[in-house]
Amino acid sequence: MKFTLVTVAGFATVANAFSNSAFMGKTSITQAAKSTSQLDMKYKVAVVGGGPSGACAAEIFAQEKGIETVMFERKLDNAKPCGGAIPLCMVGEFKIPETVVDRKVRRMNLVSPNGVEVDIGSTLQADEYIGMCRREIMDKYLRDRAIEYGAECIQALVTNIDVPADHKTNDKSRYTISYSEFKEGSAAGVPGSMEVDLIIGADGANSRVAKAMDAGQYNFAIAFQERIKISDEKMAFYEEMAEMYVGDDVSPDFYGWVFPKYDHVGVGTGTVVNRPAIKQYQKAIRDRAGDKIAGGKIIKVEAHPIPEHYRPRRIQGRMCLVGDAAGYVTKCSGEGIYFAAKSGRMAAEEIVKLMEGGTRLPTQEDMEKTYLAKYDKAYGPTYAVLDILQKVFYSNNGAREAFVELCNSKYVQQVTFDSYLYKRVQGNNPLDDLKLLGETIGCLIKGYANAKPDAVFSNPVESQKRL
Ligand SMILES: Cc1cc2nc3c(=O)[nH]c(=O)nc-3n(C[C@H](O)[C@H](O)[C@H](O)COP(=O)(O)OP(=O)(O)OC[C@H]3O[C@@H](n4cnc5c(N)ncnc54)[C@H](O)[C@@H]3O)c2cc1C
């Protein structure tokens, strides 16, 4: 039986009637009614989006018997445009099988605007690597696992969410989700609607849940990627190798990449400050990779926004954002898969605890004090540091030359890999830190002296919009 407003109101009326009546003391009927209602009723949680954040949230809710979990995914074979790089800790923490990881990258070739190349990776242990995945494979695996745990998955586009005016104060008010369900042979889809008690917005950068709850805007990068099938001989170079190119030709504020996948490479770039020129930057990254991808066949072209920072509001009433919908992508690296999975799992774990076996609904304040506080404490400093690094090292060619030179340092490589692979900074040495500061200043001076000046572009609208 579904937990409807009518049944809640009905039981509340019955309970009130008895508590105010001459039957006070003879509580057995009230208790019987209550316990029957608790057995029958289940609060319904809707997870909108079946990417890493949604799937990892849904699998936690689904394991709680007192909660009914529904996951909406508009396209079950969705291939999210993405480089697909994941840190080693995600493989263990989220029990991702090796079959989901296409390539284990153990070396990174970092290329400066002047073409100086630095080979990164010698500090890695034999069992350490960056995982390279195809999102259509990884997302399906995570989603299927949530379904195995008991989540109901509906292949449908959520088109509207009706938010009741009293949703922050009345835990009996429910959200109405309207959707268009995929049906074989029907181009338009079949319309449907559902009432739910709590919504997890895991629907990515163009989140409809964020819009419905008035979460506010964030600035975003546009990222572009071509999947290019290259010959086996050329693919051999990328066996365990990924490449990162920096320079104003490939991006005025980000980097271009060549990431190896199962039988092809993903070649891409991104920018916030000059989005209209994205195709020009994409051509430049293809040119910079040059002979290494020459003769390759473009098998897929994809583009998608990447959020630059958190949404102004991540929870409203019983609507809660995770992953890209919340804005959890780091600057500098553009990493978001791990943070999506982690935030989905963390939000769900905290909410399940607050729901006490499905006997109550959490308030906005409950969720802010648990999920948000915990997430911000764990990852706030990471976002802040990477934001500063991006501002210092990606803003002009002089700084980019300095960045590449600094990455020659084994100490920098060690600290960078430790923080990326394990999401923690370990083994820092104050003396080395001091030496590093000196080296940074030296590299910046040298970089500025030797760098080619950045090309001037005029895009005041987007440059100034940057927050
Ligand atoms: C080109 C590019 C390269 C990137 N490279 C990397 C990388 O190498 N490593 C990394 O860590 N991060 C990378 N990122 C970032 C990463 O892709 C995201 O941070 C991550 O996918 C966020 O996961 P998510 O589950 O929050 O959202 P998404 O992965 O966007 O998933 C949202 C899901 O919701 C579904 N959906 C959306 N709207 C609706 C709706 N109305 N109804 C029903 N379903 C809906 C979508 O179909 C999708 O499956 C890259 C991003 C881009 C664009």
UniProtKB/TrEMBL annotation:
Associated pathway: Cofactor biosynthesis; tocopherol biosynthesis; Porphyrin-containing compound metabolism
Domain annotation FAD-binding: ranges: 188-352
Keywords for the protein's UniProt record, in alphabetical order: Chlorophyll biosynthesis, NADP, Oxidoreductase, Photosynthesis, Signal
InterPro entries tied to this protein: BchP_ChlP_pln/prok, FAD-bd, FAD/NAD-bd_sf, Geranylgeranyl_Rdtase_fam, Geranylgeranyl_Rdtase_pln/cyn, Geranylgeranyl_reductase
A single BP term in Gene Ontology: chlorophyll biosynthetic process
Keyword Signal set for record: yes
GO MF, one example: FAD binding
UniProt EC number: 1.3.1.83
Broad enzyme group: oxidoreductase
Swiss-Prot/TrEMBL catalytic activity: phytyl diphosphate + 3 NADP(+) = geranylgeranyl diphosphate + 3 NADPH + 3 H(+)
Protein origin, superkingdom: Eukaryota
Protein name listed in UniProt: Geranylgeranyl diphosphate reductase, chloroplastic
Lineage: Eukaryota, Sar, Stramenopiles, Ochrophyta, Bacillariophyta
